[in-house]
Amino acid sequence: MTGNNPTPNPRPNNARVIRRLLFVVVGMFGFGFALVPLYEVFCDITGFNGRTKNEQAAVNTRQVDTSRTINVQFITRVNTGMPWGFKPEVTSVRVHPGETKVVNFLANNPTGQNMVAQTVPSVAPGEAGLYLNKTECFCFNQQPLAAGAKTKMPMQFYLDPDIPKHIHTLTLSYTMYDMTANAQPDVLATFEATSAD
Question: Whole-angstrom Cα distance, residue 22 to residue 19?
Answer without folding.
Answer: 5
